[in-house]
UniProtKB/TrEMBL annotation:
Keywords, in A-Z order: NADP, Oxidoreductase
Organism listed in the record: Marinomonas arctica
GO molecular function: dTDP-4-dehydrorhamnose reductase activity
Domain RmlD-like substrate binding span(s) in chain numbering: 1-290
Name by which UniProt lists this protein: dTDP-4-dehydrorhamnose reductase
Gene: rfbD
Protein function: Catalyzes the reduction of dTDP-6-deoxy-L-lyxo-4-hexulose to yield dTDP-L-rhamnose.
Entry EC number(s): 1.1.1.133
A UniProt-annotated Pfam family: RmlD_sub_bind
């Protein structure tokens, strides 16, 4: 099938291209310079020319703190962009696979968020992503929105790579211990998206809507760092684990407020034939790749 991918240089974009090399599909992949998803004319021209069977939107404005003072651009990429893609998807009567975030929630829950739970973003990034979800829902019928969280991979910037770098530079590290979420390997998310594409190609009736795609077990940032250091030392990525100190969110202020509890339920994923990211084993694989 003909798959159009946006944001090809991001973590998800690169992982999606990797999984596609082992599959028999025609990929039309674009970076932000080739296809700015906020440019209505360009989006229409490229999509109408390629005539894909499905669109995968891996493009996003992901600088959570910068978004607080750059909301115009955050909304352009995270809300206008998905809207324009959805308009084209509706025009061609093809599905749009779009990716959103746990930051649409306020983090005040005490048990895993369901896709149907009330949203209440606490910052510009989360609000702009929520606006993107709403635009997709309004503009096209055939859509799957996958809300994900705490994305890591061998590519780009992410918590795993930051921890590995800091472990090589410092003996002691302070990491926030009062925020909980579900780490997600971008490669697992990419495989899940490919599986959704292929089910659609095979004519399976997909239940369009919003799903939560994230790691199978929750942890705090501090706990995640502990796991990373343990595995990184064992696989030879770092020579020695640094001393890890637990701190509170108050001790690590950021421009954008982070949700305290952004654990999401992945139960509904079975409805679209995919399973949650087994993040601990995926982390082993990412660390092996970082070791070479
Ligand atoms: N990373 C996380 O922890 C996390 C957590 C929850 C949800 N998510 C969501 O997961 C998805 C994938 O995230 P990721 O970690 O792969 O993001 P990423 O690594 O930051 O990649 C995003 C990509 O989008 C591209 N982009 C930015 N503006 C664009 C535009 N106007 N037109 C086209 N492309 C544009 C960027 O290209 P340039 O670099 O050229 O600007 C970048 O390659 C996003 O929807 C994100 O909101 C991520």
């Amino acid at each position: 099938m003909r798959i159009l991918l946006t944001g090809k240089h991001g973590q998800l974009g690169r992982c999606f291209q990797d999984v596609l090399t082992r599959a028999n599909h025609e990929l039309f992949a674009y970076d932000s310079a080739e296809l700015n998803i906020a440019d209505a004319q360009l989006v229409a021209a490229i999509i109408q020319q390629v005539k894909p069977d499905i669109i995968v939107n891996a493009a996003a404005y992901t600088a959570v703190d910068k978004a607080e003072t750059d909301s115009e651009n955050a909304y352009l990429v995270n809300a206008t962009g998905p809207k324009l893609l959805a308009i084209q998807a509706a025009d061609l009567d093809i599905p749009l696979i779009h990716v959103s975030t746990d930051y649409v929630f306020d983090g005040a829950a005490v048990e895993p968020y369901l896709p149907t739970d009330e949203t209440n973003p606490q910052g510009v990034y989360g609000a702009s992503k929520l606006a993107g979800e709403q635009a997709v829902k309004a503009e096209c019928e055939k859509y799957i929105i996958l809300r994900t969280a705490w994305v890591f991979s061998e590519y780009g910037n992410n918590f795993v790579k930051t921890m590995v770098r800091l472990a090589k530079e410092r003996d002691v590290l302070n990491v926030v211990a009062d925020q909980y979420g579900c780490p997600t390997y971008a490669g697992d998310l990419a495989k899940a998206i490919l599986r959704i594409c292929e089910q659609y190609e095979q004519g399976k009736v997909l239940a369009w809507g919003i799903y939560h795609y994230c790691g199978d077990s929750p942890i705090s940032w501090h706990g995640f760092a502990r796991v990373i250091f343990f595995k990184a030392e064992r696989s030879g990525v770092i020579a020695k684990r640094p001393q890890l100190k637990a701190i509170s969110s108050d001790q690590y202020p950021t421009p954008a407020k982070r949700p305290e509890y952004s654990v999401m339920s992945t139960e509904a994923l079975a409805d679209i034939g995919v399973q949650a990211s087994l993040w601990r084993s995926s982390l082993d694989m990412v660390l092996r790749r970082l070791a070479v």
